[in-house]
Amino acid sequence: MNLTRAGEIICDAVLTLAYPQICVICGRSVEQRRFGVACESCWMGTRIFTDDDEICSKCGAPGPPACGRCEVLAFTTARAVGSYKGALRESALMLKRRPHVPLHIADLLVAAALREPLSLSTRVVPVPLHPKRLRTRGFNQATVIAETVSKTLELPLDEVSLDRVSSPEKYRAGLDVKGRRDTVAGAFKVTHPRLVSGEDILLVDDVFTTGATVSACAEVLLEAGAKSVFVLTLARA
Ligand SMILES: [Zn+2]
Ligand SMILES: [Zn+2]
Question: What is the 3-state composition of the chain as percent helix, strand, coil, each rounded to the nearest 5?
Answer without folding.
Answer: 40, 20, 40
